Amino acid sequence: MLSICLFEPEIPQNTGNIARTCAVTGARLHLVRPLGFDISEKAVRHAGLDYWDEVDITVHESVDAFLEEYGDRKLYFFSTKGRRVYSDVVYPSDEEVFFIFGRESRGIDEDILIKHPDTTLRIPMRESMRSLNLSNSAAIAAYEYYRQQGFSSMEKQGELHGRKWESL
After folding, report:
1. What are phi and psi of 79, to 5 degrees?
2. The CA-based dihedral angle spanning residues 63, 66, 69, 74, taken in that order and rounded to the nearest 10 degrees
3. pTM for the full model?
4. How far is 148 from 94, CA to CA, in rounded Å?
5. What is the pLDDT of residue 37?
6. Could you tell me if 35 and 44 are in contact, meaning their C-beta atoms sit under 8 angstroms apart?
7. Which of 65, 111, 116, 154 is most deeply buried (CB count within 10 A of its CB)?
8. Whole-number Å distance between alpha carbons of 152 and 85
9. What is the pLDDT along the chain (168 residues), one digit of tens a residue?
10. 77 and 116 in contact (C-beta within 8 Å)?
């Protein structure tokens, strides 16, 4: 099972996009306060987040509280400072895996990354670029996890106007 965790997200559109990725893949979403936006039912409805109710969401009061509760799990921290490339890791299929992303403005605090050098991962990009968009990064990582699992929790065959390909 995959869980995507956002440490102190700041931009509601990114969190909404990540929630949609979680909804379509079946991943869980963990949000760690403080949040840069309101996630009340009224605010979510007003923002038009139509997949929000399809996501298993847990909100944590702080990074410390999250790490205290889940620190013994398989935690992978995504950062431009990571030594390892996310696609070089073989993710376990028999236990919950957490992909953790930091704030849009500053990422994950370095003191956390220093404690987890072997599970701090990066997504390759051109050296002159600062970073990828947070929601794109979460989607890239999530789909690598599910690719490694053979997309076993997802539909494998698409349809064209309601008809299976082999019926065409």
Report:
1. -160, 150
2. -100
3. 0.90
4. 12
5. 83
6. no
7. 116
8. 23
9. 999 999 999 998 899 899 999 999 999 999 999 998 887 777 666 555 667 888 999 999 999 999 999 999 999 999 999 999 999 999 999 999 999 999 999 999 999 999 999 999 999 999 888 889 999 999 999 999 999 999 887 765 566 666 666 665
10. yes
The SS3 call for residue 92 is coil
Confidence at residue 163, expressed as pLDDT on a 0 to 100 scale: 67
Measured CA to CA, the distance from residue 90 to residue 149 in angstroms comes to: 10
| 34 upstream amide cis, omega within 30 of 0 | yes
Tell me the CATH number at 144.
3.40.1280.10
Res 160: pLDDT: 65
- For residue 31 the two structure tokens come to 């949000």
Which residue range(s) make up the domain with 114?
A: 2-167
Report which of 139, 164, 162, 143 is spatially closest to residue 153, judged by C-alpha positions: 143
Enter the DSSP assignment of 103.
B
User: DSSP letter at 35?
Assistant: P
Give the amino acid at 127.
E
Q: Write out the DSSP string of 50-108.
A: TTGGGS-EEEES-HHHHHHHHTTSEEEEE-TT-SEEGGGS---SSS-EEEEE-BTTTBS
Cβ(119)–Cβ(91) below 8 Å: no
Domain count, the chain: 1
